Amino acid sequence: MSEGQDILYEVRGKVTIITLNLPDKLNALNGAQYNLLGKLVERADKEEDTIITLLQATGRYFSAGANVADKNLSSVDPSTLFSHEYWLANFVARNVWLTDLFHNHRKILAAAVNGPVIGLSTALLALCDLIYVKDTTKFFLLAPFANLGLVAEGASSSTLFLRLGWSKSAEALLLARPIKGEELERIGFINKSYNGQFSTTEEFNQHVHDELVSQVENLHEDSIYQNKELLKAQRDQLITSSNSREVTRGLYKWLDGIPQSRFVQMSQKERKHKF
Prior knowledge:
This protein has helices at 31-45, 84-103, 120-125, 156-174, 181-187, 201-216, 221-233, 236-256, 258-267; strands at 7-12, 15-20, 52-57, 108-113, 117-118, 130-133, 140-142, 179-180, 192-193. By secondary structure, it is α/β, with parallel strands linked by helices. The protein has a single domain (7-267), classed as 2-enoyl-CoA Hydratase, Chain A, domain 1 (Alpha-Beta Complex). The longest helix has 21 residues, at 236-256.
C-alpha cells in the first residue's frame, strides 16, 4: 500500500483499492483529504493493467462527509473568509473537479460500503457504478445540505433523482432526511447486500474484492470500457449541468456566511445531523 495513512492506495491484480482510513473520525474528510481522494481516483484511472477501482473504508462508517471539526474556519484570515477568491479555490474548484473525476472515471468504479454515508461522500457514492453494502440495517444515505444552509453538491441533484426517483430524492435533499439501507436496496440503489454475513469490515472488503474479480474474469476489457461510455452518455448532460449549477449556488451560500455559522453550531453541539 502507498500514500498517507488517512487514505490508502493499493494495486492488487486487476483492481485498484482506495481505502478511507480514518475510523476514529468516521472517515470524515477535510478539504485536503478530499483533494487526496481525487488525486488517487485520477491515478487509478491511469493504471495500465486494472479494470476495477474499488473504494472501501475501515471502521463502522464509510464516510461521515466533511470533517465538521475542520469547518470552524478559525484559522482562516477573516478578511478572506467571505471573498470570492477563497471559496472559488476551496469549494468551487474542488467540487467541480471531484465530481468530474468520479463521473468520467474510465474503469468500473465500485464501492464496498461498510456503513453510513453523509454529505459530499453521498454524492460521490451515487456516481459509482456498483455498490455493495455490508449490512443494510446499519446503512443510510444522508444529504444534509439543507440542514447546513447549503445546496446539493457533487451533482447529487441529478444522481439522486436518477437513482432514487423524485419522491425519495426530494426527501433526501428538501427535507435532509436519511434514506435507510432497506429502502435503498428496494429501490435498486444497492447492487448486493450481505446482512449479517461478515463480522468485520475487513472480511467484507475482501469478499467484495474477490467477488468483483470473479465477475470480470473472461470478460473483454474494451467491451467493458465501451459499455460504460455508452451508459455514461445517458447522464452526461445532466451531471455536467448540475455540477455547474450546484457550485454556483453553493458559492453564494458561503459568501453569505450561512454554512460557516451552522458548522460552528454543529462543532459546539448546538445543531445535529438528522440521523
